[in-house]
Design brief:
Low-confidence stretches: 179-228, 266-287, 315-322, 489-495, 544-558, 592-597
Distance between the termini: 71 Å
Largest sheet: 11 strands, antiparallel
Strand order of the largest sheet: 5-4-3-2-1-14-15-16-17-18-19
Strand content: 15-25%
């Protein structure tokens, strides 16, 4: 079996895996289906399509079981909700528990030191019931959680149907039992030979099940009531960044960071900024936070499998190409040759690199990875060391080093550029994900609405949308897209306070796209400066008009009745304006050949006549539309 070269987890929790031999595997966002593409043969024709196998994960054959297990383990380690198929999980990892575990309780703030242990710089805290525990790494940049999770279940409709089938099967067997017993009683009355008498004597038991010949067999077919109360669980391991901690793990993480800060000898200046932010503002110390609701597993079968997209990146094999991650979705986690890249997309695109030796690279800079800070510590030492690397001036590779700093940072930069393109896209954020369609998981997806539109003479048209996107169309055919958060109150100290992404996308008339740094636009400065100045004016002058959290749907009534009301108001204004009376008076007024008006008066009269005729035509058209709508109602 071929080993993995690259594994990519996208924002919708779909997974793509590339293997050494050229074969590829793709998991659906919910994990219930997979597509395996075989490696092309060396003798195959260039136009020959590779073989593909599309199967349900729960019914995977043994040929792809091991590869699918590793892909699912990678997905469940970073996905929002795990997918746990009973047929894929090894038997030694299954646990039968007679209770339903949905939440865990953590120790209080005044905990004893015995509840938290430290091993080689790692802090571990366990829940009071032992159903979950959290481990904070020595670097304090990432942590892992282990918790018991119920395996994926069938949808409710399937389970109800299965219970009905079991009940119907039980009723049929009981009915067959009654028939056998009745036949035995009748035969005892009618038949007089000894064999029949002996047979009837064996059927005199009070329990009708014992009178059946196959009573033991059908008893085995009936479902045991104890089995229904048993729940199958397994341990799930998830890895998270301290800077992007989910809500359910913030409280235990705060306990681990608090314990770490008390027992470490590091000074406050050496403490991580992320740690202090989590301790002070990111985690609440309320009593209710001591209980964490555990993530539940997704359903065994997807209710909307038609939403699954099965398309591989054709350029995935090109190592130096910018289109490596051309899949139309934001990247969440990348594993490439033993190095893990984890991204966050809350406010800005940021990336953390874990080479595997305990050190961490974190992207720095105003907007997008212009610099990387390298955090590492010597073995047996509690002190941290830091180094700063610039993307434009990377050091050469050192012989004998475990990894190449140059290649690792370049790979991270390519991932960030892909995510910047996706964030600047006008369509990728509105794709419907299958597992988000389940009730209670996510709110309904609504398309963004237009907040403001401006037509600038001799420049072009600029539009602002409710999803913080600004789209400008210039007269020369060039379009520009950037992200600007109009809801953030501008501070006078920062010029581009609302700018949430330091890159913009330029699309030229020939269709070519290019990412431009807003701070260094180069020859395209006039496009960037025009849009930035427009966004600043809009944020300053229309602060009340543009809400902090705009409604995704404009409250506007597009019914036929409202349109008819608008037409009636227009006709009323036209009739009361006196324009039509002036036209009729001028037609009936006799002309005088003795009076010759000046040229200006003639021009003014012609202009009034043209305006009157245009208004008259418009009125006739609106009346025709009114009649047409009235007839359509009938």
């Amino acid at each position: 079996m071929a080993a993995e070269v690259r594994m990519v987890l996208y924002e919708d929790d779909s997974v793509q895996v590339q293997y050494v031999d050229g074969s590829r595997l793709q998991l659906s966002p919910c994990g219930s289906e997979f597509l395996f593409e075989k490696a092309p043969l060396a003798s195959a024709h260039p136009l020959e399509q590779p073989g593909r196998i599309h199967q349900r994960t729960h019914f995977v054959i043994s040929t792809y079981r091991e590869q699918l297990q590793r892909a699912l383990e990678f997905r469940n380690s970073y996905a929002t909700f795990p997918f746990l198929s009973e047929s894929i999980i090894p038997s030694e990892r299954k646990k039968c528990i007679f209770i339903d575990i949905t939440e865990v309780r953590w120790p209080g703030l005044n905990i004893d030191d015995g509840l938290i242990s430290m091993q080689s710089g790692t802090v571990m805290i366990s829940s009071l019931d032992g159903h979950a525990y959290l481990c904070l790494s020595k670097s304090q940049h990432e942590f892992t959680v282990h918790f018991l999770c119920k395996v994926s279940q069938k949808p409710e409709s399937s389970r109800v149907l299965s219970e009905k089938n079991n009940q119907a099967q039980k009723d049929r067997l009981v009915e067959q039992t009654g028939r056998v017993c009745t036949y035995g009683n009748l035969s005892r009355r009618k038949l007089k030979n000894k064999e029949n008498e002996l047979c009837c004597q064996t059927m005199k038991s009070t329990d009708p099940l014992e009178n059946c010949v196959d009573a033991a067999e059908w008893r085995e077919k009936l479902p045991s009531p104890a089995v229904k109360r048993t729940c199958l669980y397994t341990w799930v391991k998830q890895c998270w960044s301290v800077a992007a901690c989910p809500e359910e793990w913030k409280y235990p993480l705060s306990l681990a960071l608090r314990f770490r800060s008390k027992n470490s000898r590091q000074s406050e200046t050496d403490a991580d900024v992320t740690q202090s932010s989590v301790l002070t503002s990111g985690v609440s110390e309320e009593k209710g936070k001591e209980i964490s609701v555990l993530p539940r597993a997704l359903l065994l079968s997807c209710p909307v499998p038609h939403l699954h997209r099965w398309n591989f990146c054709d350029s995935l094999l090109q190592e130096e190409s910018d289109e490596e991650y051309s899949y139309p979705e934001l990247v969440k986690v990348v594993w490439y040759k033993g190095v893990t890249y984890r991204l966050t997309h809350k406010n800005v695109n940021s990336i953390e690199i874990y080479p595997g030796d305990g050190s961490v690279f974190k992207s720095e800079g105003a907007y997008l990875g212009n610099f990387f800070t390298y955090y590492y510590s010597q073995e047996g030492s509690e002190e941290k060391e830091e180094k700063m690397y610039s993307v434009n001036n990377l050091p050469p590779d050192r012989p004998g080093s475990l990894f190449s700093v140059n290649s690792v940072i370049k790979q991270a930069t390519r991932i960030l550029q892909h995510c910047a393109k996706m964030r600047l896209s006008l369509s990728h954020n509105y794709r419907i994900c299958c597992w988000k369609m389940a009730p209670g998981i996510s709110d309904s997806i609504v398309l963004p609405s237009l907040l403001r539109e401006s037509l600038i003479p001799s420049v072009g048209r600029i539009l602002a949308y409710s999803d913080d996107k600004v789209h400008a169309m210039f007269l020369d055919g060039t379009t520009l897209t950037l992200n600007w958060n109009f809801g953030s109150l501008t501070e006078k100290k920062q010029v581009n306070q609302g700018l949430s992404l330091g890159w913009c996308k330029l699309t030229f008339p020939d269709g070519h796209d290019q990412l431009i740094q807003i701070e260094h636009p180069g020859p395209h400065e006039r496009y960037v400066a025009t849009v930035i100045s427009w966004c600043r004016r809009l944020a300053q002058t229309s602060q009340r008009a543009v809400p902090a959290h705009p409604s995704p749907v404009l409250e506007e009534n597009w019914s036929v009745a409202s349109e008819l009301e608008k037409i009636k108001k227009f006709n009323l204004l036209l009739e009361n304006s006196g324009v039509l009376d002036q036209i009729s008076n001028k037609k009936n007024k006799p002309t005088s050949h003795d009076y010759t008006p000046e040229s200006s008066e003639i021009l003014l009269e012609e202009n009034e006549k043209n305006v009157s005729m245009a208004l008259k035509k418009t009125s006739d058209i609106l009346q025709d539309i009114d009649c047409l709508l009235s007839n359509s109602k009938k």
